[in-house]
Amino acid sequence: MGDNLSSNLTIEEIVLINNLLYCENLGGPRGTFLSTSQESRTIGDFVNGVLRNAAQIENDKEYSTGVTGAECKEIMWAIRPNQHLKDIIILQVHYESDSAGGGRSALLYDPAYNEAIVAFKGTQSDAEWIDNVSGLYQVPTLYQNNALSWFRSLALDGYDTITVTGHSKGGNKSKFITIMDDRVNSCFSFDGQGFSDEFIKKYALQIRKNRGKILNIIAESDFVNILLNDVGKKQFYLGTNFGRLGFAENHCANAIVFYDDIGGMSVWKAPKQDKKMTDLDKMLNSFIRSVQMSTRENVANMLGNVIVNAKGGDTDKIIDTFACERYSDSAAQLVAFIFRYKGKKPEMVESVKEILSQNGFSTDMVGIADFITNHAVIMKIIGSRPKLVLTLLRLRHSPESLIDFLTNHPALFTLVDLISDKMWKVKPLKYCGDDLVLD
Amino acid sequence: MELTREEKNVLSGITFHTEEIEKGELCEADMELLKEMRAVAGYFKEKYPSYTFEITGCEPKSGTVREHNEWYYKVEGIDRASAFIATAEEKDGKYQIKDDFFGEIIKDEMAQEIKKILTKGGFPILQVTVGFWESLGSQHGEDISATDVLKGIIRAGNDIKIFLDGSKLGGKKYEDVTGEVEKALLSEKIKGDVYIVVVKDSAGDISKDRLYSDTLYLE
To answer: d(Cα A182, Cα A400) in Å, to the nearest integer?
Structure first.
């Protein structure tokens, strides 16, 4: 059972359900869990249907970001011996169509305990990424409201228990619904981001009333749950190995799933959060609190642009975002804050080094970069004298790739100049970095 | 550049530069999406001239493991909580577009045909629904034949769900009933996945009061 919550699902079952939401086109269209054609089938029917086509599932191919065919099959095999989970019926699958679309979710039914389970998939589209960052300045966001509207459209009378769950953005939607709708009995947010200070203050009454129903299931090194203020109890879980995406795989829904020799799955509680993530959480909170509400939308959109372009692997567009007239000020504000913050908290540099190593990057230059970025004067010189910098780099036989990169992106020097100006003004420790917790 | 309200809504929903889109000042990526959106809109007009479509959103493939963009759409007069989805992929300068709307046109006729077959066989039917696993392209228009789809001449990935009244099965084993349903459908050359659910009785809820379920694959 899920801790003190009234759901009849175990944490393992909750984690498996959240993994199913990401199963898409496994061996063909029948292998998409969130397909309206799955309505009325049981989870067991879905799993059997997928395994029937197991030969068509390519082990090395990624079927959702960071999750390969072989990993998806592991999930299926882990579900197979669990009769309780297999008997759960998929009642309704929903594709959000309002506000540019993107959110996907399902209403499930556990006949053994007459329990309704409403499950939300994580960020599905660019439109949802826009919504994610709008959580910094909008209370509530469009997609939080869309999720609540759909939830309220469901016929939920007659169930003994109503449980909501979701991974990532789906976790955030689950928490939002639990805060706003008193009918929810249990909420399991899996690596879901939190809420802004403004949200916490606005809905303080509702949060106090319903936060006891929320359990945050968090991979110890997950980097999404640290965004904004969490609501509810937190339980950290040990993470497994990294794949193609390196450190980024800490946010995959299967990152906390361990298997035994015969395919059985388990999750293991971690004593606490990875220190890197705790440090990063505090820095992000401090930064967001340092940005005035009037400019927060611009900062949020800048971050969103960077995330969407990074997701598409487009480095040039990321640089364009940093350097363009609209966002350069916000980008400089963020980078200047990070530089000044790490100056005051040098342990952040060690965290960055560790993350780089886990992604296979060389950390040889981190020390120099740290030294330079701790000094606004040096930054000013670099920013205002691009030719000199490039000449010095060539004389020192610096990597050609670095010289080419800087030559091709001259706007970066202007940005560095702007960052150095901002560094004088930033007060990195003025705002507290702890999550805002109501009494 | 002139954009319709629908185009502005979709494009500004998936980018961060709403102001430029409102003014019709599109970047290269927006232009590409607009071109594709217009191709999808044109495809709908040509394929289903009797219906009116509204494209409501897009999920670009960029940054995903998909090879196509997905376009969310609504159809005038059809009340559905979930969005319909069309897929578009550019190959050799041409768009390959597929949609899931054809199913709306033929699903009721197909369900009626299945009911007819099962009624003839004396099965106590509570409900029959038909869905599809596949999306279809422009080769099949709004005059698509329900019979051809049902018999697998047009391959749409038929997904047939049959709900039977368990109180009227005369004590037969559910596995035997499933076998008889299979025989009846095969004799009429029906193709597709058939999901059979036995419900307690005619007053029973098809989810809460199910006694048995099984899947047949008629290939």
So the answer is: 60
SS3 B207: coil
Residues of chain A found within 8 Å of residue B206, distances taken between Cβ atoms: 40
CB contact set of B75 (below 8 Å; sequence gap of 6+): B51, B52, B53, B54, B84, B101, B104
What are the backbone angles phi and psi of residue A141, rounded to the nearest 5°? -90, 165
Tell whether A284 is covered by a domain: yes
Residue of A nearest to B83 (CA): A97
Residues A215 and A302 in one domain: no
Q: What is the tens place of the pLDDT at every residue in A150-196?
A: 999 999 999 999 999 999 999 999 999 999 999 999 999 999 999 99
Note whether A57 and A186 are same-domain residues. yes
Please, which residues 309-368 of chain A have a Cβ atom closer than 8 Å to chain B?
A: 311-314, 326
For residue range B27-42, list pLDDT tens digits in order.
888 899 999 999 999 9
Query: Touching check for A87 and chain B: CB below 8 Å?
Result: no
Alpha carbon separation from A290 to A62, A244, A280, B8, B115 (Å, rounded): 39, 35, 15, 34, 66
- Asked if the structure places residue A418 within a domain, the reply is yes
Nearest Cα neighbor of A340 from A389, A396, A394, A283 is A283
Spans in chain A with pLDDT lower than 50: 1-2
Instruction: Kindly determine whether residue A45 and residue B213, on different chains, have CB atoms separated by under 8 Å.
Output: yes
Distance between A376 CA and the closest CA of chain B, angstroms: 31
A383 and A340: one domain?
yes
Cis peptide, bond prior to residue A29, ω within 30 of zero: no
Q: Is the interface score ipTM higher than 0.90?
A: yes
Outline where B48-187 has alpha helix (H).
Answer: 102-120, 146-150, 174-187
pTM given for the model: 0.93
Question: Is residue A43, in this structure, part of any structural domain at all?
Answer: yes
- The alpha carbon of residue B148 is apart from the nearest alpha carbon of chain A, in Å, by 20
